[in-house]
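SAMPLE LOG
Freezer: B-3
Tube label: C17
Construct: single chain, 154 aa
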Amino acid sequence: MATMIDGESYLGKVMVRPLTKSGDVTLYLWPLRCLKAKFGGPTFGVDVNGVEIIRFDPHGPRGHWHRGGYDKLGAGGSHVDYPDGMTESQAQLSWSLEQVREQTAALLADAGYSDAAAGLDADLLQAATADVVTHLDAHPGIMSEAIQKDLIAA
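STRUCTURE (predicted):
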């Protein structure tokens, strides 16, 4: 799972799900990651043996995602904007989950993790992405809580 960054806040229970039968590739989810700049949203990604490769930050107008090896390239080197016009968090979340289901193998291979890509299990990918939605739905009011705590600007 990704490293928490000093000065950021994380609300809700973290979720981790395997994407391979061996468990060496996992999907993690932080229900609400509050960045220092007082914005945020859910953050989730794909790790291989604890190394973060792919990250999605569906945070609305400032939302983005990371490819190519987040831990290897850093936030700036792996940063990718969502498709043009996709500025709403729910649309970003849906698009991101589709990428996980359909593109994780290609994204892992492109980042130099072909063996991990070959071990992906389609049923586990489907279950993990469904669990993201269920887990987020289990945290109603989390954004309001973050605003009340002055972690997110209203």
